[in-house]
Amino acid sequence: MSFDPLAMLTAFGLIFLAELPDKTMFASLAMGTRMRPLYVWFGTSAAFLVHVAIAVGAGSLLSLLPHLVVSLVSAALFAFGAFVLLRSGGDDDDDEGGTKTVTGFWPVWGTAFMTVFIGEWGDLTQITTANLAATNGWLPTAIGSAAALMSVSALALLVGRFIAKRVPLKTVQRVGGACMAVLALWTLAEAFIG
Fold first, then answer.
1. How far apart are CA 132 and CA 114, in angstroms?
2. Is the separation of the CB atoms in 29 and 95 below 8 Å?
3. Please, what's the b/e burial string for 101-134 (b: 16 or more CB within 10 A of its CB; e: otherwise)?
4. What is the spatial distance between Cα 111 and Cα 140, in angstroms, rounded to a whole number?
5. pLDDT digit string, tens, across residues 95-108
């Protein structure tokens, strides 16, 4: 089988556009305002790579996963993220220099990885990747899909860092917490409504 650059570009374009309004893009944005963006990007990228590998390797088997259980776990993780952000966003006795940021490569990487890893199960981008791999070849699809997902995550983190530099951290934490709460409700709605 020969490598088809058009298949790679097709996968990149479709997955990039599908991921832009996705809940994991907003989760990356929220995490990037509270944690080191590069560490978050490494965590989200690792999770995306695992999902791309699963999608191209197992394609049609993804539909056999228990969607309700995965959605409930994903909603719980988003709710936990909202709780952490809203709790820290309400600390009024911290001065500007005393605000706490989640640090350390492994804690940030683990949080970002698990958030995206759980949140992406059965997602449109994962299903699209599986379908593209079945029709366009696994290697160009894997490269295009992974590059698209990692690009959207980087874009979200850059926007998150831009916002964090111009808006007070407490406001960013409150808005981020509200976004995570909305994502938890959105995931629950998707689980029960379809």
1. 25
2. no
3. eeeeeeebbebbbebbbbbbbbbebbbbbbebbe
4. 29
5. 444 445 667 899 99
